[in-house]
Write a structure and sequence with these properties.
Chain lengths: 349, 76, 352
């Protein structure tokens, strides 16, 4: 669905993660203390360190995004020009009001500035860019897109994981999108396969299964009951992502040679390598180092790669393809030229 | 006019003894639901429509304030 | 922000309300009012009948039922839907998006844009704006906009600020490309500094639910509420609406060189009868032209009230109408839109 959107420039990106860093090699319990196994799995999946919120931290994804936005304002982005703020998250501050409205107040944005939330998972950055791009015009010239999740709030820190290496970090990102007639078109490919929604979800806490007494553990902590059928998600990914990358390349008239970097949702290294093989693209152009330092940041994983690799992207020109995939199940790709974009290094909260 | 207003207050809040000398809001005697009811009855009694922007706690704090409010909104 | 669109239209609206009707008079013992006060408020505020979904029914269930009704009655085809937007504050799950679940249950095509927006009272206008923008894309020809809230589980039965007037409901609005070149204009504004005037303190990720957040406590006005429940600062919301909305409407009309006489109906969000009458008085518009009868018949189901208002009050008109739509509330958000409503392919209220 959807081909090209013109006149949209991605002009600034910043990302914020909690300062607390944890390393899976500090976990002496995992795999029954079998360090060799841990090393093997860590090197194939790429996961090692993560930045996560303190236990019971009052901070939310919205706070990380707000901090990322403030960093942009400190670096020359004028907040008075912002005409819309869109927050994409699965973990909002409240059921009501929208987190974007709360942030609108905290950042002191003008009352002419639109604010709303979108609920999307791993391809939330692509959906957010779509929503912002369709709003940009000569009248609405600058939009602040915030994407972030605090996965550890729903999953727990998983510091005591035994059977599986924990992969999720917390993070929030801020992106400025501007109306610019000289920019390269954004070429989209997106879709949804709702028939498989149940392979990656959290059962409890929404309106379908609201909190009841039996959902709390002995410490009063709520059990969201997350579950993922990893194999089915993998199947979906391999089924959908390589064709999606090829679709946007084809519309752009690009080949693998033209593209500088692939910025894919940081699901895990092995999956990304499989995508490269299947799509017949150069695996060295897929950026993967971010997932070893920060983990899978869910929604924020694509912008976190851009910021983590700021020496590549800051104020440079690169032809890129960004692809998000997962929860929903949904997917989305964008091919464009990232040009003269202010990219700030990842900051700590 | 003053008497009509007094009567409406009395009718709604028979528990308030000294209508002439009560600070209804400061003393916590009237809440927003009382105010809504009063407004709708003042509107009817004087054939006016009290401006929404005038529906503030201050304007309902004393009998005098209410008389002024009703006058300001065109009651004769 | 001022927005304008061209070549788009609403082609059908279906509202789905739960069968279960609750009468204000049966619940007055829950509230800290005298009987006499209750009877007065019934008239003034429009507290009367409201629709409440039975336990276990979610907003997505109402949407699924309504969409299947449209498919079964040949009013809509599955394969025509190029985008599905769900606007709700009561999603099935935190993860995944409710629109994606509906996508699966309804068997829609994969080549689709499908996402959720969290918005309350302004949800219909935010959703319409989003739909109009997507329709700018050549490949997107038809958008299904779902507005739904089953918020009643988050409303304390003993909270007289909210419980007498809040209802549950859903609406499906089909928005598509049109040959008509008449422009649609909107103005939308936000005040995030007062975002907490209407809020549900616990249950999100600022204050996750705990056994304590479920415990009801009495406030100074004698309402019983838990942190898991909706809180509405009624006075602040009232003042906000009367201060901001009339000006917005006046300015929008003025900028389009329209007078109030050019507008056939002012279709507003339905918070309560009193506020709407004050709004009509302030605008100098008759109550016939600014209907205020949704709260007393169905309750206020946030983003669903405007489509319900259209279905309930404009069902029998067979000519093109110039409407002013206005939504205001949670966020705080206030938005107004001028658009022409041609006779619709369907305009109906059905029961779930």
């Amino acid at each position: 669905m959807l081909k090209n959107i013109k006149n949209v420039k991605i002009s600034a990106v910043s990302t914020c993660v909690p300062k607390r860093q944890v390393d899976i090699f500090d976990n002496k319990l995992i795999y029954g203390g079998n360090v060799k196994k841990l090393q093997r799995i860590s090197s194939s999946t790429g996961f090692r360190k993560r930045h996560i919120l303190e236990e019971n931290s009052p901070l939310t994804a919205g706070d990380l995004c707000t901090r990322a936005a403030e960093e942009l304002f400190k670096n020359g982005i004028k907040k008075d020009d912002i005409q819309a703020v869109i927050m994409v998250t699965q973990y909002p501050d409240y059921y009501s009001p929208a987190t974007a409205c709360v942030i609108h107040g905290k950042l002191g944005l003008s009352d002419d500035c639109i604010a709303y939330d979108i609920n999307q998972g791993c391809c939330g950055y692509i959906f957010g860019i779509l929503s912002a791009s369709s709003m940009l015009s000569k009248e609405c010239k600058k939009i602040l897109l915030l994407v972030g999740d605090s996965a550890t709030k729903i999953m727990g820190s998983q510091l005591d994981a035994l059977d599986d290496i924990p992969i999720f970090g917390d993070g929030g990102s801020a992106t400025i999108l501007e109306y610019d007639e000289n920019s390269d078109e954004l070429t989209f490919d997106m879709g949804t396969r709702g028939s498989e929604y149940s392979v990656l979800m959290s059962d409890n806490g929404g309106f379908r299964n609201p909190p009841t007494k039996d959902m709390f553990d002995e410490n009063g902590k709520f059990n969201y009951n997350n579950h993922m059928d990893g194999l089915r998600v993998f199947e979906f990914t391999m089924n959908i992502v390589p064709p999606s990358i090829k679709n946007v390349m084809k519309i752009k008239g690009w080949t693998d040679k033209d593209i500088n970097y692939y910025i894919l949702h940081q699901a895990n290294k092995m999956i990304l390598e499989n995508i490269a093989t299947s799509a017949n693209i150069d695996v060295r152009k897929i950026l993967v180092k971010t997932l070893s330092e920060y983990g899978n940041l869910s929604l924020a994983s694509i912008p976190s790669v851009i910021c983590d690799e700021c020496e590549i992207f800051n104020k440079k020109t690169n032809k890129i393809i960004m692809t998000g995939f997962g929860v929903g199940l949904s997917w989305g790709s964008i091919a464009t030229t990232l040009h003269d974009c202010l990219v700030l290094p990842i900051i700590l909260y | 006019m003053r008497d009509t207003i007094k009567k409406i207050i009395q009718d709604n809040r028979p528990d308030i003894d000294d209508i002439e000398n009560t600070a209804f809001i400061d003393d916590g005697m009237l809440d927003s639901f009382d105010i809504v009811t009063l407004v709708s009855e003042f509107d009817k009694a004087f054939n006016i429509s009290i401006d929404g922007a005038d529906i503030t706690p201050e304007n309902f704090n004393t009998l005098d304030n209410m008389v002024n409010l009703v006058k300001k909104n065109g009651a004769k | 922000m001022r927005l304008s669109f061209q070549g788009k239209k609403i082609s059908g609206i279906l509202t789905v309300v739960p069968k279960n009707e609750i009468n204000f008079e049966d619940e007055i013992d829950n509230y800290n009012f005298t009987k006499k006060q209750c009877m007065k408020l019934k008239l003034v505020m429009g507290y009367d009948k409201k629709r409440i979904a039975p336990y276990g029914v979610c907003s997505s269930d109402l949407c699924e039922y309504g969409m299947n009704y449209l498919f079964d009655n040949n009013l809509l085809k599955r394969e025509e839907i190029d985008a599905l937007i769900m606007v709700t504050q009561s999603p099935d799950y935190f993860m995944p998006a409710t629109s994606n679940i509906l996508h699966g249950k309804l068997g829609l095509k994969e080549d689709i844009i499908c996402f959720d927006i969290s918005q309350g009272c302004c949800g219909f206008l935010i959703g319409l704006i989003q739909a109009f923008m997507l329709l700018d894309q050549p490949e997107i020809k038809k958008v299904a906009l779902l507005n739904a809230d089953v918020i009643s589980p988050k409303v304390s039965k003993r909270d007289r600020n909210s419980a007498p007037l809040l209802g549950d409901g859903a609406s499906i609005t089909i928005v598509e490309k049109s040959d008509n070149n008449e422009k649609i204009y909107a103005d939308i504004k936000f005040d995030g500094k007062n975002a907490m005037c209407l809020n549900i303190p616990a249950g999100g990720f600022r204050m996750p639910s705990t056994p304590e957040t479920a415990m009801e406590k009495e406030d100074e006005a004698g309402n019983f509420r838990a942190l898991d429940h909706l809180v509405m600062k009624g006075d602040d919301v009232f003042n906000f609406v009367l201060n901001k909305v009339p000006n917005q409407i006046e300015e929008l009309l003025k900028s389009l060189n329209l007078t109030k006489n050019d507008i056939d109906y002012f279709i507003c969000h339905q918070p309560n009868k009193f506020m709407l009458q004050k709004l009509a008085d302030k605008l100098g518009v008759s109550y016939d032209k600014l209907p205020n009868n949704i709260v007393e018949n169905f309750g206020n189901a946030s983003g669903v009230t405007i489509p319900t208002n259209i279905c309930y009050n404009l069902k029998n008109t067979d000519k093109k109408l110039k409407l002013l739509l206005s939504g205001f509330g949670v966020g705080l958000t206030w938005a107004s839109m001028v658009l022409d409503l041609e006779p619709l392919k369907f305009i109906d209220i059905i029961e779930f």
